Amino acid sequence: MADKQPSACVPCQGKGLCGGKGLLTLKDGAWTNNPLSIQVLGICSALAVTNKLENSLVMGGALIFVCVGSNLFVSLLRKWTPHRIRMIAEVAIIATFVILFDQFLKAFYWDMSKQLGPYVGLIITNCIIMGRAEAFALQNPPVLSIVDGAANGLGYAVVLAIIGFFRELLGSGEVLGHRLLDGDWYTPNQLMILAPGAFFALGVVIAIFNIFRKPDAQEKKE
């Protein structure tokens, strides 16, 4: 898990948001090393809850909330956390934020909570969050850790939203309750809202991301 996590310690120098390191951290988490399209982490949620755009947006929001909150507290407590129990402390912090979000859903959005089922609770085991806490927040100041958590969470949420949008559109002909593919010319493909459709959509999204990343990779080689 930790072997796949880039961007360890990023020293803060200069003025502004850690001397511009914040922008590099933001780009790294959201694009260069996107946790889903590049590292292929957290695919359980990507396959299970992206049959509808609404579900994808809520799950993406949950991951942003948990990733930012856990990174912040892991960073704040890093100097007082004994090394041998650090992972226990990280899991406890992550679980706290997951429970807070889960209880919020149950209190205000009960129908959505039922649709997502156990997948909100499974965020505790999401290797993206644990990986960022271990590889980044444990070695960097709170501000950069917040940026890193937001970047990785946002990168993951955007990919989920893209997959959810096309799966719902092609699977039912509508998005968020609005019919977009109307008329007799299109017959909804039920396969897209089933598990095989999730694998297909994820593969296509990863391929497209890799196509757009090729120019960046070539520039780095030069």
Helices, by number, come to 8
Q: What is the overall silhouette?
A: globular
The count of strands amounts to 2
Cross-sheet strand order for the largest sheet: 1-2
In what range is the share of β-strand residues? under 5%
* Helix/strand order, N-terminal first: HHHHHHHEEH
Q: Structural class, from helix and strand content?
A: mainly alpha
Biggest β-sheet: count, sense, barrel? 2 strands, antiparallel
Helix content estimate: 55-70%
**Average pLDDT score:** 88
Distance between the termini: 30 Å
Q: What's the structural domain tally?
A: 1
Low-confidence stretches: 1-7
Question: How would you describe the overall organization of this protein?
Answer:
Helix content is 63%, strand content 2%. It has helices spanning 21-32, 43-48, 53-76, 86-108, 110-116, 127-135, 142-172, 195-221, and strands at residues 174-175, 178-179. Strands 1-2 form a two-stranded antiparallel ribbon. It has one domain. It has eight helices and two strands; from the N terminus they run αααααααββα.
Question: What descriptors fit this protein?
Answer:
222 residues, mainly alpha, 2 strands, 2% strand, globular, disordered N terminus
Q: Quick gist of this model?
A:
The protein is an all-alpha fold and 222 residues long. The protein has eight helices and two strands; from the N terminus they run αααααααββα. The chain has one domain (40-221).
